[in-house]
Queue: 3 jobs
Job 1
Amino acid sequence: MSTETTRQTRSRPRRADVRAQVIQAAAEAFAAHSYADVSVTAIAASAGFTKGAVYSNFGGKPQLFAAVFAEQFTELVGGALSDALAAVDVPGSDAPRAVAASLTRGVVRGPLPALLAEFRGLAARDPELAAVYSGLRLRQRLELEELLRGVADRFGVPDGLDLTVAATLLLTTVNSLAVEHATAPEAFPADLVEAILTHVMTGILA
């Protein structure tokens, strides 16, 4: 192998790094514009790669959007349930409220919930988008089931808890409140969002 070839091989970014940079650029683009107004070309340029790099790593804009939203979801829900586990070890703490407060911070912090609503509306009329949306929500529900299983075990929740129902309830409640707060914050203020999520988590962990 020549020195030039070796240099090119060493300087070529790893696939994981490419994906991370593209996801970051896409998250910023989706935060600033609607889903329909964001182009793969613009995302690729912002990330410093060719459009082909986006397609080879994600398949297209729908799959890239799903990857961005999945990462945001994991950070939001994983962080919230970690707060619940931490609260277990603090005497007098209210774990359901700790989860609700953490989730509320995620719900009110940015435009992604409204973007998901836009994506869902487009998916209702486009079979390709519908398949991506369905796969995204299924993965999120399964991920949430596993996270809730760990929390339930730590809290000593009875075996009768249906994790699929609990995960679906929490997922749809968070999604609905996020969209409502994004579009009508006066009608769905942060304190009301937190109160609703506290009731939901209290019911799940009771």
Note: The chain is about 80% helix and 0% strand.
Job 2
Amino acid sequence: MTQSNDKNPTVTSLLLVEMREAIMDGRYAPGTLLRQETVAEEFGVSRVPVRQVLLALSSEGLVNLQPRRGAVVAGFSEAEIADLFDLRALLETKLLAASLPNLGPDDFAELQDINTAYGNAIAGAEKQRFGELNAKFHLTLYRGTDRPKSIQIVSGLLQSSNHYTRVELIRHDDMMRAHAEHEAVLDHCRSGDIDGAVAALRSHICDVQKGANRYGVSAATQKDD
């Protein structure tokens, strides 16, 4: 990016993408103060697009605009993380139990393709695809239900947890664990083992929650730059 073009809407759009990725990847940890002049210098633009991008990130819930302090990268407290993942475990296990009897070989093949793509994204360090493929895998598991409101709620919860999921999965061991846990859920689904599939899914969500809590505790110790 160059300052000569920083009034171009394209520059603002590109800056939005880059800053969103920096937050989602954990380069800007929760609690980080984003000073306009510092961000402008880092990306080689003026403050004009930076202000616009911070407003956009605020509307997405990724940044909090605080009076007399400025923009701060948003985060969840441990209680908020627990609330988010408890809701996921409650709703997603019920959806899976209701959905599995209505899933067939074509659905399982699609789920395998999604998880294979997830594994390929891990191998290629395509962090921007983790949340997309994770949500796609989970929501495909529940397509056998006729509960659109629950699906809508779960979709929103998956989006909300995407930030922590991606940051927690930056470590290769954690990424491989999540991939293996998806495989375990799918194996139980293929065999028609509803109880086993539900237990594996609950364990998977719990493991991701533990990682999110580790990240949240670490982020709480961050100091402003």
Note: The longest strand covers residues 63-66.
Job 3
Amino acid sequence: MIRVLLAHQGGLVRGALSSVLAQEEDIEVVAESAHGNEVSELVDRERPDIAVLDFDLPVSTTMTELCEQVSARCIVLIIAERSSAVCRRVDVARLAPRIGVIAKESPPEALIDGMRRMILGETVLDGELARAALAAVQNPLTEREREVLRLADAGLTARDIALKLFLSHGTVRNHLSRVMTKTGGRTRIEAIRIAQDSGWI
């Protein structure tokens, strides 16, 4: 029996997925959640074989940190849209086969098949997302640098970013300086453009 933790922010979607999985004789949904902050505790308490996580799940840390924490205790299968930045925010290539990714556009049968394959030790990664994962391996920016750069791209100043991420102003400036060095951008705007064109953010 495959014990499953199902975490999805959408109640209707989560309920529908749970109903579909309940029809399978070898699958049991042992816990459900709508928030990423509950996942780690549920994994410890319910001891699932696999955690199926919505990529858009709200979480107070980062999806990378959550996936790395959970994948140390059970297999993780992320559900993400093909247009998402999942493979740039979660190092899927490095963490496979403990972490897999399946597209939200996939039929339920693909999710069920993916879960069974991961239990057998196979790597599960959507084709289009796989190409993004290969590109992500070459990403020179750290998770924090990408986070700072995305906020800068959204128009936030270094002081605004520092307040939002609970960092010092100097730390944010250091992150931005390293980003410019790594991208070769002469200005912050140029660094953002290079990172976007390279698929790094």
Note: Strands lie at 2-7, 27-33, 50-54, 75-80, 99-103.
